[in-house]
Specification:
235 residues; alpha/beta; 8 helices; five-stranded mixed β-sheet; single chain
Length: 235
């Protein structure tokens, strides 16, 4: 739509978009990233659209400029959407109820919860291969199941589990993480005419330190922990 930039996201995404609905979002890493991208493109109107994760990652959403929704860049996804240059490193974190005895060998005997259609789900079933994997349609449902004792471990992006642990008032903790070598990228419409122009703007924000500043301001605050200090486990 001329005169505005439309960014899509699957909410909620605390730290990335602070607010539960498009109308209530005031700031956050990806929200501010989108606003700065629009500003650098010379457009002063930004519209946030809340979409479902499954439709976004399957290339089934329409009429948007780009999506910023903590989407890991993967080869299968590239068949249906285009990705920007990587803007954030993504690993898989291990969230448990505080005091749960778990390490990199005993985790395989536990009940593991994953978010369907994510790289965390692929990692659990394809690489980790624990005895039991339960799949949830959304992240809040998975975290609720963990607190209710229906699963022993919630396995998803380190960024997500750190945010959840910080919000759990000490009831949950992140005990380890797995290196995936993956990164988040903006999701573009396949073959979109402005994709290359947006890429240049994102690269400029990486080069001039803008994205590092956003991470320090919004993510470290929400997580209450430095992701680099969490031990890496071998699958």
């Amino acid at each position: 739509i001329p005169g505005q930039v439309t960014v899509q996201v699957a909410l909620p995404a605390p730290g990335w978009y602070n607010g539960d609905t498009p109308d209530t979002i005031k700031d956050g890493y990806e929200y501010c990233m989108a606003a700065i991208m629009a500003y650098r493109a010379g457009i002063d109107k930004l519209v946030v659209q809340n979409v479902t994760w499954d439709s976004l990652i399957a290339g089934q959403t329409h009429d948007f400029d780009f999506a910023l929704s903590e989407a890991s860049i993967t080869e299968p996804r590239k068949k249906v959407v285009d990705f920007s240059v990587p803007y954030f490193s993504s690993d898989i974190g291990v969230l448990v109820k505080k005091g749960t005895a778990v390490d990199q060998s005993s985790i395989k005997d536990m009940r593991i919860g994953v978010h369907q259609g994510t790289t965390g789900a692929d990692f659990a079933t394809g690489t980790l291969k624990p005895k039991e994997v339960k799949t949830y349609p959304d992240v809040p449902g998975m975290f609720t199941a963990l607190q209710a004792g229906q699963i022993d471990v919630a396995l998803t992006d380190t960024a997500y589990v750190l945010g959840q642990a910080a919000q759990s008032h000490g009831m949950q903790e992140v005990v380890g993480q797995y290196s995936t070598g993956e990164s988040y990228g903006a999701v573009y419409p396949k073959g979109g005419t402005n994709n290359a122009a947006w890429d240049k703007i994102i690269q400029s924000m990486i080069d001039d330190g803008t994205l590092n500043q956003l991470a320090g301001k919004y993510l470290a605050a929400v997580w209450g922990a430095d992701p680099t200090k969490i031990p890496y486990w071998k699958p």
